[in-house]
Model the fold of this input.
Amino acid sequence: MTTASKAHTPLRLTAGAVVAAAVGWSLVAAPVGAAAAEQAEPGAELVFEQPATPIEGVEPGDSTQVSFAVKNKGDAPATRVVLYLGGSQGLAYAKKYSNCVYEEAPAQDEGPAQVNAVCDIEQILEPGVVYEPAEPIGLNVLDRALYERLNVNILAGIPTFPDGTQHGGGTDPVLKLVARAAPEAPGTVHGGELGVDITAENTADFALTGSKVKGTAGQTVDAKVTFANKGPAWAKNDVYGPIGVFDVGIPEGTKVTKVPEFCEPAEAAATYRCTTPYNYADEDSERAYVFGLRIHKVVANATGEVAFVKGDNRWGTLPFDRNRTNNTAEIVVNETSGGATSGGTAGGTSGGTTGGATGGATGGTGSTGGTDTQLDELAETGTGGGTLLAGGAALALLAAGGAALAVRRRTS
Done:
């Protein structure tokens, strides 16, 4: 077992290598102008064997391996071959090959951070021959890992390194491709995109907090709700929909005068549905949602419930969240002694407006605990209403053909 390590200082990729961020998995794109499944070199067509076998059950701190098989399906040799690797942010490359240039790409627009490599393969790939890397691509599984992915792309005739051969990106020996001796199995399927999903045995603690505010009739108060991912893992949805969705109940006697971004009225009366901005949430991140509430009638201990709701796919029941004690919270207006139990502090008044401070979580933190079955019940019954924000369109996709992948895990 190899201990996971932090990736090295970011390096900018050489001219011609375009790093593209997508709302789905981060992808390393081919140079601008290259169409999907199209090689820049006439006569050469590089494709991967399919399908890719997912890797499951690895632990943070483990190492795993990914191999692939690429075939020149064209009628001419492939030269100036460039290999693109795009890994999600819970992974790190176990080796830094000397003919590869590496980059840690930060989160940009709506795409999460990623770890990329572009490798200059100084080889001629002959037509009809299947090639594999001389050794599998080693990956370290970081402490933040959960739902990870490695995308692989290969193109021929691409001037990614305009000054010629690129070396010095890493200190390990050159990454080479070798011809596979075994014949290709009849009926082998090829494809233009190659990716392998890597699922780590990890958790992400999603938490909601509310607030307590005070005011008199006619005043407007700010009530803050906070969504947080307390980690240890970052988490990403398996669709473009937001990773976190929750309903905010509006306390009796108040009227909403200010709606925070990424919130909108829900079907239920006096309820707003809020979402995270993107389809992922980094560990140790949080976002505040501040509602303006005008008090038109003073009601002692007026309370609005805040709770996650069921939605699409992975985040619907938060399968990665084993601490359900902080999955609900409350907004309390004009609490009296012995009133509502939600944590928080009362705000002061200024110019007729009362500002409420952030409330405390209704339960403790940790990777276990809680007997709350709300999300489990939602999984069975579903929740109606609300338009989910789907994030934005992907800025770029892999621009190449590809296919086949064989995945092998390191057992030591």
